[in-house]
Design goal:
By secondary structure, this protein is an alpha/beta fold. It has two domains: 8-113, Serine Threonine Protein Phosphatase 5, Tetratricopeptide repeat (Alpha Horseshoe); 131-295, GMP Synthetase, Chain A, domain 3. It has 15 helices and four strands. A four-stranded mixed beta sheet has the order 1-4-3-2. Helix 2 runs antiparallel to helix 3. The longest helix is centred in the N-terminal third of the chain and has 20 residues, at 8-27.
Amino acid sequence: MLEHTLSQEEHSQIVQTIEMFEVITQTQPDDYQSLEILKDAYQKIGKPEESLRVSRRLSEAYFNVGSYTLAMQECEVILLKEANAPEILAMLGEIESRLQAAGHSLVETGAKVGLVAVSHANGHGSSNGSAEGGLIDSKRHAHLQERGDDQLAKFLVMQQLFPEDEVAAGLETTNHLNKDLTGQALASSLLDKICRVETDKLDAALSQLIDRTKFAYVPLEYYDVDRQVARMLPDHLTLGRLFVPFDLVSRTIMIACCNPFDAAGREAVQQSLDYTVTWYLARPDAIVKALQDIYRLESRA
């Protein structure tokens, strides 16, 4: 298979991706998802030395989160280029010791530790055009009505970020606004409703959500979103769920959201795309602004 020759525009987009993810991985060194994207991006523009450098960081990130199988695989890739790399050999020895001490079950556990932030939902079968298929479609439609706002509300209260009555009022308002969205109507965010004028509380909530879900954070307000990538999802998942596909590297599409508890929405995304999906958390106002720019919508009050 012939390698795809990058156009100038594609090269520039990948360079922009590299610049962004270098910043992200400096502040979040164990964000293996971003490191994977960074490694692949360097390979795409023909910088194997930089890709190998990121590969070393990636092996450490996998190791630090307990994904020992993935760490071992990354170490093996490095050793193909540098057969006697002392720190990599040392890491392999440490991994082997830990696996022997804990048993093989640790391999399975470790492989799952880092997967929280990646869409893990699979399809539930296909419709055959029969009554059974119609029932499945009906169930999926009902399932998609679940937006994860109830779970987000409980999380905010349990973490003592906001008073229960304040969250309940915000939830009621958000549910009402999102009840009958049609056309190019923008959904409303529970976080935005509660934190609209309290930036410090929003930052605290995002920090807690990142700790809980292991989603990486993306400063979407500073990102030049590719409209073509953003429109790869149907309107009811972008505008209707506040999802922003903001970049595409190889077979991985990166999507920003402001409610990581929207499992039904994430499942629908995975069913709509034939790509590996990597999820990121972003500020709700940045997501709304990005969607307004992408769809050329008027700013709402």
